[in-house]
Design brief:
Chain B: One of its GO terms (biological process) is transmembrane transport. The structure holds two protein chains of two kinds. By secondary structure, chain A is an alpha/beta fold. Chain A contains eleven helices and ten strands. In chain A, strand 4 and strand 5 form a beta hairpin. The chains are: A alpha/beta, B mainly alpha.
């Protein structure tokens, strides 16, 4: 395994990232941002704004028929245009992803334990009983009850919240420097959502891991990140500390977002008993 | 879809289905297995013991049952049961051999074709479609004509023809799996392509694939019988059911057993493997499996 010396500069340095389809449509337009070690950045925007494509482009995983130009440097490695072999080395080690829908992001025919063991074995080289212990530990760390039962279960046999915890355990098993969370709570019930956010927050703080948190929900992003980047139609419209963006949004789109979030909140306030 | 955690505590994954559907499913599988096993038993016994030699013509011509000939003899005085047992061995060999070739060539081609992009993808898809449009029997006749009329040629020909069918299926299945999130998820955790194919793609296409291979087995048996009927299969004195049918054709009115017996066994084997395929589909298909939970 390659030594993990800290390169100078930010952990993730995106400059002029542009994603185009083969038929010429621009889906992400000249996007630039950085994430330093241990920093937490929120990527916010409505569906179709290019958030998910951006996360895929960060790991060189754009679907067929799309190409990225510009520069994405992850822990000193240039991702755009890199050969598959170099990308495989970076994925998981420098950045891991938690996806929106855990049911489809987990192999339906593989027991949870094996799915976590795969990346874990690759990073640590553990085998047999040691590997099984490590898998159980990973499940305990994401606060799953009965880790042994979960390890033997198939994805459809456990609840959505449990699945997402398994997906989180899988991502963390690689001990990445950057955790990319792509709408990790959107598919969950509201009550489970809050728990999941808490868990993510705690685990990431413990490890001093950098986070790129992608969401359409301003409230969720505000809870777990320090800084936000607002995307609209593939373009960055505003960037700044969470507090500034929420209290004094500059761009018109951001103002609409904040107003929308506040309206929901006040509706709750009005209905709650005094 | 979302299940409460509590009732699942004691549940093993294999016991997730209700007893009723399990019983119905296993009935199909059981019936199929029994029919197939019957023929397989005949074939296995023929390897170590036969009532008469395959070229023993000592029995009377078209004799009825009796005199050691349990089912009588054919027009050359050969024992019918002996021929049927040899035929069973040849049928099973043809099925297994063809399916093995089809699986090996077809899966390899199909996986490669699924990963191809752009013009190469189109070319491969068109190539497979053309191969499939070409009649299996005609292709087999060409191969047999180019080589010689042996069982090996027949198996090779049928196997190659079926490879195209399997390859096209595998290509579509792999493409579908490739579009799934869990493949992207595996890739984001740094899984290499070969590892992704082995750990995630093949297991996920396996249920559909194995059902199709079982069906191909039945088709291969029929194709071999067809080739033998035309005199392009295993050469005498190895009796293939197809050739037995052809030889008994002229004497069907006077001695119907010679034509009926191989015909019935052919039906038993083909229906048997089709039932096995059906049973396997219910047991293995993740779609039906999940619907039941």
């Amino acid at each position: 395994m390659t030594p993990r010396d800290t390169p100078p500069g930010p952990l993730l340095d995106v400059r002029g990232l542009t994603v185009r389809t083969d038929d010429g449509r621009t889906l992400v337009d000249d996007l630039s941002f950085t994430v330093g070690g241990g920093e937490r950045l929120g990527l916010i925007g409505e569906s179709g704004s290019g958030k998910s494509l951006t996360t895929l482009a960060l790991l060189g995983l754009l679907p067929d028929g799309m190409t990225a130009t510009g520069s994405v440097e992850l822990a000193g490695t240039q991702i755009v245009g890199a050969p598959e072999k170099r990308l495989t080395a970076v994925r998981g080690r420098d950045a891991a992803v938690v996806f929106q829908e855990p049911l489809t992001a987990l192999d339906p025919l593989m027991r949870m334990g094996r799915q976590i063991a795969e990346p874990l074995a690759r990073r640590t080289g553990l085998k047999g009983r040691d590997l099984r212990t490590a898998v159980t530990d990973a499940l305990v760390r994401v606060r799953l009850p009965e880790p042994d039962r979960i390890a033997h279960a198939f994805p459809h046999e456990i609840s959505g919240g449990q699945r997402q915890r398994v997906a989180l355990a899988m991502a963390l098993a690689c001990e990445p420097s950057l955790l990319i969370a792509d709408e990790p709570t959107t598919a969950l019930d509201v009550s489970v959502q809050a728990e999941m956010l808490d868990l993510l927050d705690t685990l990431v703080r413990e490890r001093e891991m950098a986070v790129l948190f992608v969401s359409h929900d301003l409230a969720v992003v505000a809870k777990v990140t320090d800084r936000v980047l607002v995307l609209k139609d593939g373009r960055a419209v505003e960037e700044g500390p969470v507090l500034d963006v929420v209290t004094a949004p500059k761009a018109g789109y951001t103002r609409a977002l904040v107003a929308g979030a506040r309206k929901l909140e006040s509706a709750l306030d009005l209905r709650s008993p005094r | 879809m979302t299940l409460p955690a509590a009732p699942l505590k004691e549940t093993e994954p294999s016991k997730e289905t209700t007893p009723v559907s399990r019983r119905r499913r296993s009935a199909t599988l059981l019936a199929g297995c029994s029919l197939t096993a019957l023929i397989a038993l005949l074939a296995l016994v023929s390897l170590v013991w036969l009532p008469f030699d395959t070229d023993d013509t000592s029995g009377g011509r078209l004799a009825g049952p009796g005199d050691g000939h349990l089912l009588g003899t054919d027009k050359l005085g050969r024992d019918l049961l002996t021929q049927l047992m040899t035929g069973a061995r040849i049928a099973v060999q043809a099925g297994l051999g063809s399916v093995a070739i089809a699986a090996l060539v077809g899966v390899t081609l199909g996986v490669l074709a699924a990963f191809a992009q752009g013009w190469l993808d189109d070319t491969l898809a068109a190539f497979l479609d053309i191969l499939i449009a070409f009649p299996t029997l005609l292709l087999a006749m060409l191969v047999v004509a180019a080589r010689s009329a042996t069982l090996g040629s027949a198996i090779l020909a049928i196997g190659l023809a079926q490879s195209a069918v399997v390859a096209r299926l595998v290509r579509i299945l792999v493409k579908r799996v490739l579009a799934r999130d869990y493949i992207t998820a595996a890739r984001t955790s740094g899984t290499s392509w070969p590892r992704t194919v082995a750990a995630h793609i093949l297991p996920n296409i396996w249920p559909t694939l194995v059902v199709n291979l079982a069906l191909q087995f039945g088709l291969a048996v029929l194709a071999e019988a067809g080739l033998s009927y035309l005199g392009l299969g295993a050469p005498p004195p190895n009796a293939s059911w197809g050739r037995m049918l052809q030889e008994a054709q002229a004497t069907f009115t006077t001695a119907p057993a010679g034509a009926l017996a191989p015909g019935i066994l052919l039906v038993v084997l083909v229906v048997g493997v089709n039932l096995v395929a059906d049973g396997l589909r219910d047991t293995l298909d993740p779609a039906t499996r999940r619907r039941r939970t």
